Amino acid sequence: MSNRAYLQKITLKDIRVIFFPKNFYEKYSYLGSVPHKDEKSMLHALTIAMDYEAKPKWCPRWFLRFLYLFGCDNSIIRVRNKHAYHLFMKLTKGIRIWDYKTKWTDYDLRISITGPEHLQDLAQAIELYTYTNGERKEKEEL
Hints:
This protein is mainly alpha-helical. It has six helices and two strands, in the order αααααββα. A two-stranded antiparallel sheet has the order 1-2. A hairpin with a 6-residue loop joins strand 1 and strand 2. The N and C termini lie far apart (about 55 Å).
């Protein structure tokens, strides 16, 4: 049994995504767990706010997607190349969306991010709004 880490194979699609993203997910994928759905939600607004904070003004987004592929292997936890990874983390200030999911009910949203306090507050406000709005709608149905 080998102790080597498994790295994904880089395909032409991965290279296309770097330079020609087709949708919201591909465009902001360097931030981590970005929403896949095309319908706009508050998670999309959080993603755009995080992009504004993470992307240096002088740095093109394609370069961050390039570093995310070759440094992080398009993963939140893997590292393909430590130098590219460290450059990526320095440029983006470590801002990431680790995960978002619903627990117990479809409106109990949990968002895990790394970023400045105002982004943490925004994520908490989205969680609270989603929960209170969903709970209110559920009570109205009863």
